[in-house]
Fold each of these.
Amino acid sequence: VASIPARLRDERPSISFEFFPPKDDASEAQLWDALRRLERVRPAFVSVTYGAGGTTQDRTVRVTGRIADETSLTPLAHLTCVGASVRQLRQVVGHYAASGVRNILALRGDPPGNVRGEWTAHPEGLDHAEDLVRLVRGLGDFTIGVAAFPDVHPDSPDLDHDVEVLVRKADAGATFAITQMVFDADSYLRLRDRVAARRDLPVTPGLMPVTSFPQIQRMSELMGTPLPPQVVERLEAVKDDKVAVRAVGVEIATEIGRRMLAEGAPGLHFITMNRSTATLEVHEALGL
Ligand code: FAD
């Protein structure tokens, strides 16, 4: 199986899916149902996010290991520096390696409970994602990805700084990047081109088919990803009709996805919210 960065350089757009760790048995069943349905379109990889607490982190490690073990899928495990000493981070990477996971998305993470709060590192931990890239690199033969922010990271002064940070992450050993969810294709393309001028680092856009208006408003606020006025307008016009919101959400994601692929994006990383239907509708509409 080709590595993730090799797949991202393929002629064919590389499709990938993101899940979050289930919080109980019922949501675990839902995750596996979505995963099995999405497995059929043969994604380049699937990723599982990493939460801030011990129990959710254990679940990420377990689910990612199960994906490596029981499916034909290539897992990408998210990992953050939040609340962890270097020793603990080494242990988690060791667990991933032991369960056959060789791809890690190295992130800083956000302070628990307050995403926009001020960052404080663990006293024996790491300060930036770049440091985690270096740590993981030193621990074995891992393929390492990092986060990118087309709308500029909320704590970052400007796009120049973000580009500089990505260059540093690439120099530390990252070989691909995935962006925060994109609602403005131009912002993605701007960042992609700025990075391409400096380093050979494929940057895959994150794409989220909106299925609920309040949910996307909350996420946009939390992540510091503004929703363009045209997007808000289209969703607001149908906000009292759940079925119509979903349809408009799929339509918007399809339009943005089509434009980014036409402009040479290496693929699309779908934020699935552990559901398959909307994602599969966009996938089909794009003729992938
Ligand atoms: P960093 O690269 O460390 O950047 C954080 C801030 O520090 C930025 O403002 C940056 O400009 C600045 N900075 C970085 N390096 C330096 C430096 N050397 N000197 C000065 N300033 C610097 N969060 C989770 O908790 N779990 C997840 O699973 C998760 N998955 C994600 C997946 C994707 C694709 C994306 C885009 C984000 C994800 N996040 C996740 C959110 C992410 O952890 C936060 O957005 C976090 O605030 C930034 O993480 P980072 O890895 O980009 O950090």
Amino acid sequence: PRPILLTRHGESQDNVRGRIGGDTAISEKGEIYSKKLANFVRKRLKSERAASIWTSTLQRTILTASPIVGFPKIQWRALDEINAGVCDGMTYEEIKKNMPEEYESRKKDKLRYRYPRGESYLDVIQRLEPVIIELERQRAPVVVISHQAVLRALYAYFADRPLKEVPHIEMPLHTIIEIQMGVTGVVEKRYKLMD
Ligand code: F6P
């Protein structure tokens, strides 16, 4: 069975500063990850000529994919990170201090909470539907380079995790989650390539 490889982009400038959203480039550490990832993909998908690399439309995923050669790359807007609306570019500390009600309502119901002029996890889950349909249609392996919230939703779908857990699934940087759909169900492996 063909694998689906899920990974977040390499560490971004905003990750370093603790800012959410945005469209910054990757850091030096992020670049190191992009090379390790390319190496991993080259070995793992050696004889898989029909494989493809899917990214979001944000710089940090496109840059993370750039050292990967020999496979077609497709950009999906539906793979962009959760839209934090008026909170885009803020740190969690700043949200807590400047918009305490927003901070509290998100904490109370992270799945349903929608950022003002932005999205909720439920919104993200809904917009991922075409991506999921296309992923299920693919016969060849796919490497999905996306973002924390989006990958939680995608992973939950394939690993059959309940909705309420989605916003809390661990989705660390610099880690590849490999999913294989077998006859007996889903087999999952995690490869932590660096800290
Ligand atoms: O901090 C990185 C990030 O991808 C942000 O852009 C995004 O808002 C956040 O993670 C999503 O995670 P959480 O739902 O836990 O805030």
